[in-house]
Amino acid sequence: VIAFFQPKLLAGKKLLITAGPTFEAIDPVRGITNLSSGKMGFAIARAAREAGAEVTLVAGPVHLPTPRGVRRIDVQSAQQMFDAVLPSAPRHDVFVATAAVADWRPAMSAEHKIKKDGSGAAPSIAMTENADILASVAALKDRPYCVGFAAESQDLLKHASDKRLRKNIPLIVGNLGPATFGRDDNALLLIDASGAREIPHNDKLSLARELVREIAARLSTQVS
Ligand code: CTP
Ligand code: CA
To answer: Is the full-model pTM beyond 0.90?
Structure first.
């Protein structure tokens, strides 16, 4: 019997992945969040693990099982996600940001439930911007290979290309929403310095495996 030993594509590599939405508290019973099932990020974690990588998945509030062999850190807010990611990012080879991070949080979170005052008036909630986790990782001196995601409702190529340049990352993955949100299938547009290529419509695990192959290929010819 001739046995071929095929080394796994991401053997020895460490991947850090964010997934899901974040939740920004207004008071103990209310908050602001984004639409995100977390399915794409979890599929990428699984595919990367299958490809031999050591995978850490930083997940916002989602209802998904942890892929086998993946280390999972659960967080709620964008700030908690930032704190879980930034210090450990330089120890990783790849950072994949799939999370739908809330762009703003209430400037102050009330300690107790905000009550109606009976006047019919609604409270106004002052908001403040959350730090950009992906751009912050990409700005590190010792940065991993950074992959961003861009869900857009229109002009996908333009918006995603602009985002890639603005965040100074080598690769961004675009998808058109919100029709795809929460679904098990999707199509992806990969954009790097050399142009754009579509990964045609497929289930998210197949897309994730294809994306992992694309990332592995780029790691071996590191141009960022
Ligand atoms: N991202 C992040 N931290 C944030 C906002 C976004 O890490 N505070 C990451 C997302 O995980 C994604 C990429 O940045 O990989 C693009 O997110 P997106 O929301 O599309 O871009 P923004 O820069 O927030 O622009 P906008 O929402 O205005 O389109
Ligand atoms: Ca955003």
So the answer is: yes
